[in-house]
Amino acid sequence: MTSPTNGGLSQEVLDLLAQPLDLALVRERARDDGSVFAYLEGQAIIDQANRIFGYGGWGAELIGEPKYQAAEVVDQSSGELLALGMYTVAVRVTVNGCPPKSDVGCGFVTERTLEAHGNAAKAATTDGIKRAFRQFGQQFGNSLNERRPGTLASPAKLDDMRQRVVALSERLGVDGARTRSWFQERCGLDLDDAAERELSSAIKALANELNERGAQRRKAA
User: Fold this and answer.
1) Taking 80 as the threshold, does the pLDDT of residue 201 lie above it?
2) Is the pTM of this model over 0.70?
3) Is the domain of 89 the same as that of 120?
4) Domain-embedded: residue 149
């Protein structure tokens, strides 16, 4: 017997789709607000499709060309410029014995280079494939809770914030030793001992400096 939603999928495939998701495939990424984003990587989605539907048993295609929209995305807590724009593209996934599934993916442009634009367009395609496959259920991550509360000042978040301080300083041409010295003078604390408030303040200052330099370069170009 087959379900109306999934057309002519075999019982074997339906049984595989009904299994719990292997949690070893799940990846997590912390957000600045302390929440945790759980997701499946694009390669994991493809591996799942091959395992469940078989090699040659499915395919994906773009519906139209990727579209670009310029839109600056700024981190509200730090002021850091996160993206310059994004690509969106509709993707159709077809599985043998089942009506096609479609969705729209997006990918963000983070630098003013052709490579960054190409990577964002590819990311939009991958995102579209992932979103379309989620319509097949939890084997493709549909059951994942993408945003769940976390501890705002967790050790993991503080480590991420320290790494951001160092990363932003490096983009400004400042090495690790000078960054630590600057942080000590600014906040009166060693970088490793700082709390969320001091780290957030430093990140915002560095991001503002980085954004200001970028604006000056654009004016001079």
Assistant:
1) no
2) no
3) yes
4) no
Residue 102 sits in a domain of what CATH number? 3.30.390.80
pLDDT at 36: 60
Residues 45, 93: Cα–Cα separation, whole Å:
12
* pLDDT for the residue 145: 56
Is 131 in the same domain as 56? yes
Does residue 63 share a domain with residue 22?
Answer: yes
For the segment 119-125, the average pLDDT, to the nearest whole number, is: 94
Contacts of 152 (CB under 8 A, 6+ apart): 33, 34, 196
Same domain assignment for residues 21 and 101: yes
pLDDT of 94: 96
Q: Which domain holds residue 64?
A: 11-140
Neighbours of 21 (CB within 10 A): 17
The CA-atom distances, in angstroms, between 171 and each of 111, 188, 195, 210 are 13, 23, 23, 8
Could you tell me the end-to-end alpha-carbon distance of the chain, in angstroms, rounded to an integer?
Answer: 65
**What tens digit of pLDDT does each residue of 138-181 get?**
899 987 754 444 434 467 777 888 888 888 889 889 898 898 88
Distance CA 20, CA 38 (A): 16
Q: Which amino acid is present at 98?
A: C
Q: State the Cα–Cα distance between residues 19 and 181, nearest whole angstrom.
A: 53
The encoded tokens of residue 196 equal 């969320």
Same domain, 81 and 180: no
